[in-house]
Amino acid sequence: MDWRLVLAVNITLYVISWILIKVIVKRLPWRAQALSLQFLICALIVSLYGVATDNFHFSMAALWPMLIGFFVAFGAYCQWQAIDLSMSRTALFAPLASGWAIILASIVLGEIAEWNIKLEVGIVTSFFAIFLFLWP
């Protein structure tokens, strides 16, 4: 199969999927449901494309990205629900998400073994620089 044909099919599917997503999302009343439906539609389109091109192989290696995608979609849904509940609380606690990411990367991925004194000083300096912006 010629690479130009594959490229044309990919571009066509991409454009059609985004048009369908925009049409469907505009008709839904809540952003959280619209976002969840967008993740579902993208997963279905990718699955159908994989089946059509005979590249869809379900295995344990494919299960991990699917599981991660599910948690990303669920996290996005929860974030939109939180924004709908209270915008001020979301704005207050949203910056803590990057702190959790650093903590989880250090513990789960073992990145703390790569830390050195320069990195630790940089983290502390960056953390205290936040308060300099708040100082009148």
Described by the principal axes of the CA atoms, the overall outline is extended
Major pleated sheet: none
Low-pLDDT stretches: none
Instruction: Spell the H/E element sequence.
Output: HHHHHH
Roughly what fraction of the amino acids lie in strands? under 5%
Helix vs. strand class: mainly alpha
Radius of gyration: 21 Å
Note the gap between the termini. Answer: 65 Å
Question: What is the averaged pLDDT score?
Answer: 78
Number of strands: 0
Summarize the amount of helix as a percent range: over 70%
Helix count, DSSP H or I runs of 4 or more residues: 6
List key phrases describing it.
136 residues; mainly alpha
Protein model, in words:
- This protein is mostly helical.
- The protein is 82% helix and 0% strand.
- It has 6 helices and no strands.
- It has helices at residues 3-27, 31-52, 60-85, 87-93, 96-108, 117-134.
- The longest helix has 26 residues, at 60-85.
- The radius of gyration is 21 Å and the shape is extended.
- The model has no long low-confidence stretch (mean pLDDT 78).
What is the structure about, briefly put?
The chain is an all-alpha fold. It has helices at residues 3-27, 31-52, 60-85, 87-93, 96-108, 117-134.
Topology:
Elements lengths: L2 H25 L3 H22 L7 H26 L1 H7 L2 H13 L8 H18 L2
Helix pairs in contact: 1-2, 2-3, 3-4
